[in-house]
């Protein structure tokens, strides 16, 4: 595997690498992500956890509540507390939802899909050609959104 991207927390104590291109990048506009991020949306790129390599430091894993009720494990820098990635229900710890803003070059991961747009901030304008879902997309949308390779990788994570 080659290094697709590198990232770090704000203080630089924790550095990581993505050892492959991500499967998909979500721009989530749900109110929970707005609250958690303190912003209008959260931008997470999804990759297999075994393709995320900690290059420096020892991040801490913090269980936090989530809107689904299943909770999420957030991987944070123990010094500056910046969230680097999360593990959500569904794929559990097999998939890492990496915070795009922590990448050294966040331009590598523009959103593939905007989700939970029914609660997006009204001043956020989405491109005309954007993939947009009022809530979350369904299984039949996965091949189009993820591409064939991404859909196969996601299916493998989910045991399909």
3D architecture notes:
By secondary structure, the chain is an alpha+beta fold. The protein is 14% helix and 31% strand. It has two helices and ten strands, in the order βββαβββββββα. It has a seven-stranded mixed β-sheet with strand order 6-7-8-9-4-3-10. A hairpin with a 6-residue loop joins strand 8 and strand 9. It is globular. The chain starts with a strand and ends with a helix.
Question: Gist?
Answer:
With 160 residues, this protein is of the alpha+beta class. The protein has helices at residues 31-37, 142-157, and strands at 5-8, 15-18, 24-28, 42-48, 52-56, 60-64, 72-76, 83-88, 95-99, 113-115.
- Outline the low-pLDDT stretches: none
The overall pLDDT average reads: 93
β-strand number: 10
Largest sheet: 7 strands, mixed
Total count of helical runs of at least 4 residues: 2
Counting helices, strands and paired strands, the structural category is: alpha+beta
Order of helices and strands: EEEHEEEEEEEH
Our estimate of the beta-strand percent is 25-35%
- What share of the residues lie within helices? 10-25%
* N→C terminal distance: 23 Å
Query: Biggest sheet: strands side by side, in what order?
Result: 6-7-8-9-4-3-10
Radius of gyration: 15 Å
Give the CA-based shape.
globular
